[in-house]
Amino acid sequence: MANLYHFPFCANSRFVRLILAEMGIEPLLIEERPWERRDEFLLINPAGTTPVLLEQSGMVVPNAGIIAEYLDETRGLALTGRRLLPEDPMGRVEVRRLLDWFLVKFDGEVTGYLVNEKISKRFMAAHEGGGPPDMNAIRAARTNVRYHLKYIGYLIARRRWLAGDALSYADLAAAAHLSCIDYLGDVPWEEDEMARNWYARVKSRPSFRAILADRVAGMAPAAHYADLDF
């Protein structure tokens, strides 16, 4: 059995959990709080970031994008028509482009701010960066999420799924990030019906069930968070 070191509200960790669930792989989930910088975890991943996949063989695969590529290379062919990274070069480029958009750009402009300020800081000691949320960072993230949501709506108006005709890593990455900020009630779904309907399709998949069950101690999710019909 593979082990997955993750933080439940690390969106990139959620992305990997969704991939594994879509592939029918049930890893042992090990919660890791990256800000604690445990020596044991740093020995596995010196960067100290989540997610990290530890294979039964002892092989360590860090970083969501690298894990996604690794899983496609080692398990993708067995999925036949359900492969999450297309076989054609143009399709693979588009999925990878959107992966960078959500795992890096969206995280840096939206998810990273909101999760850190509203969730992570609640559990951090002062010397780890804990304390009251920075409202300027929260306001910036709330502004930024609007154009990302419009971009998702733009893509879905022209395609069945974000990167083309089939569900791909792009959909799982985008949905993973949106799920974190949706928990906090910070997604303005009323501003783009196309994006909302696409997200409802993704979060209705069986692979999403475990993620929708995640909770932050002392912080209830938005009322619609686990409602498959919004």
From TrEMBL:
Keyword Mitochondrion: no
InterPro entries: Glutathione-S-Trfase_C-like, Glutathione-S-Trfase_C_sf, Glutathione_S-Trfase, Glutathione_S-Trfase_N, GST_C, Thioredoxin-like_sf
Keyword terms of this UniProt record: Transferase
The keyword Ribosomal protein is annotated on this UniProt entry: no
GO terms assigned for molecular function: glutathione transferase activity
EC number: 2.5.1.18
Name under which the protein is recorded: Glutathione S-transferase
Organism: Methylobacterium aerolatum
Native organism taxonomy: Bacteria, Pseudomonadati, Pseudomonadota, Alphaproteobacteria, Hyphomicrobiales
